[in-house]
Amino acid sequence: MQGIRRLFHLLLKFGKKYMNDKNTIKIRVGDTVRMLIGKNRGKTGKVMAVMPEKRKVIVEGLNMVKKHVRPKKQGEKGQRVTVAASTGVSNVKFVCPQCKKDTRIGIRRDADGRHRVCKKCNSDI
Predict the structure, then answer these.
(1) I want to staple 120 with a disulfide (CB 3.0 to 4.6 A). Which of 27, 61, 93, 103 is the partner?
(2) 22-118 CATH fold
């Protein structure tokens, strides 16, 4: 409970600037993630887009919604198109390509630079 109060206090004190740190999202385009909530719970998919300023990701084949498209030319009919909607980054979890488990992502620094690391098997991603 104390952590929630502190987070709320920091949000009031610093506003959006505190939450929109560019280094907070460790999921990248092309990563495989597993959906944690909703109608697609437990399904995996590949990340197509990451929006760090909104803290959202778009996952291929998951969270599909119907979008109504107006006709563009005269005589053409309008239609309903199925597209992937964005979901919050907290609603997905990274799947390690080596151990195939849901895991968190760590950062390892060495002479070559920074590397993303699986927290369960300690292998480079």
Answers:
(1) 103
(2) SH3 type barrels. (2.30.30)
Per-residue pLDDT of the chain (125 residues; tens, 9 = 90+): 566 777 777 777 776 555 555 557 899 999 999 999 999 999 999 999 999 888 999 999 999 999 999 998 888 899 999 999 999 999 999 999 999 999 999 999 999 899 999 999 999 98
Within 10 angstroms of residue 102's Cβ, the number of other Cβ atoms is 15
* CA distances, 65 to each of 3, 38, 68, 97 (Å): 35, 13, 10, 28
| Pairwise CA distance, residues 78 & 72, whole Å | 8
16: DSSP letter: H
pTM for the model stands at 0.74
75 and 82 Cβ atoms separated by less than 8 Å: no
